[in-house]
Amino acid sequence: MKEIILGILAALFFAVTFILNHSMELEGGSWLWSSSLRYFFMLPFLLVIVLSRKGWKPLSSEMKAQPTKWLLWSFVGFVLFYAPLTYVASFGPGWLVSGTWQFTIVAGILLAPLFVRTIDGVKIRQKIPVISLLISSVILIGILLIQVPQAQSVSIHVLLLGTLPVVVAAFAYPLGNRKMMEVCGGRLDTYQRVLGMTIASLPAWIILAGYAFITVGLPSANQVFQSLLVGISSGVIATVLFFIATDRVREDQGKLAAVEATQSTEVLFVIIGEMILLGVPLPDPIALIGIGVIVIGMLLHSYHTVLLSKKSVIKEKEAGLQN
């Protein structure tokens, strides 16, 4: 249950991303700067944290030992995640993007067979947790309901441009996160892992920033400031909280699915934030029903996680009695 609370807190700080990305897009800021500036600003904060905890040397050793894997999975987990999210900000309000982003809950579960778990020296391929998939499918229904009003008012072309990149991001984020947990094997803490992934993804962000400078020039002072806020709130605080929560339950696909499902609460935080800060109107009734369905799915995930934890405790007690 503690991991779910961490996940919800992460969702609160992640919500800043969708609100400010929409704000920057409304002001004419380029998505290329919005995406790259976030990671440029994350770097010094994470570096100070890791250096103060004397964690640089083990991180450096890990990255030197497996540079290809760090570059690959950091690109997947950070670049293919965040660049699409900033790109689609021009196609709709933040609540719509964050609502579509909840597909990552189902995507994370479907990725389970790509990973193996070692038990008593034997490697066992992970299975898709069926109950968790069914619960996440409820959340997916809510996501589809959120899209109904938008689908009625825009062309198929615009709708696809506004949703397909988010689907790519929805698979990329859990895949990159889980693969890096696998690569690190518990040898690094969350701060080290996030810093390492930020450093490994820098080449891509530098290329995007360079292209932005050539095509649209320098970002405005307001875009720089808002990107700084995104970098601190979403890039550092939310990412670290979420990675801590997933790292704690990485061996249990059911609990991992529940933690990843906490991101469904983002859409609530985004709706409230956009209404207060940007004057965005309340979503249509159908979309509100969809949001309600997402919340119900999240509550079901929490309940299922509590049951899993109780079963785990009972098994441990039984094993202790047998010994």
UniProtKB/TrEMBL annotation:
<keyword id="KW-0812">Transmembrane</keyword>
<dbReference type="InterPro" id="IPR032713">
    <property type="entry name" value="EmrE"/>
</dbReference>
<keyword id="KW-0472">Membrane</keyword>
<protein>
    <submittedName>
        <fullName>Multidrug resistance efflux transporter family protein</fullName>
    </submittedName>
</protein>
<feature type="transmembrane region" description="Helical">
    <location>
        <begin position="95"/>
        <end position="116"/>
    </location>
</feature>
<keyword id="KW-1133">Transmembrane helix</keyword>
<feature type="transmembrane region" description="Helical">
    <location>
        <begin position="194"/>
        <end position="218"/>
    </location>
</feature>
<feature type="transmembrane region" description="Helical">
    <location>
        <begin position="154"/>
        <end position="173"/>
    </location>
</feature>
<feature type="transmembrane region" description="Helical">
    <location>
        <begin position="128"/>
        <end position="148"/>
    </location>
</feature>
<feature type="transmembrane region" description="Helical">
    <location>
        <begin position="70"/>
        <end position="89"/>
    </location>
</feature>
<feature type="transmembrane region" description="Helical">
    <location>
        <begin position="257"/>
        <end position="280"/>
    </location>
</feature>
<dbReference type="Pfam" id="PF13536">
    <property type="entry name" value="EmrE"/>
</dbReference>
<feature type="transmembrane region" description="Helical">
    <location>
        <begin position="286"/>
        <end position="308"/>
    </location>
</feature>
<feature type="transmembrane region" description="Helical">
    <location>
        <begin position="224"/>
        <end position="245"/>
    </location>
</feature>
<feature type="transmembrane region" description="Helical">
    <location>
        <begin position="31"/>
        <end position="50"/>
    </location>
</feature>
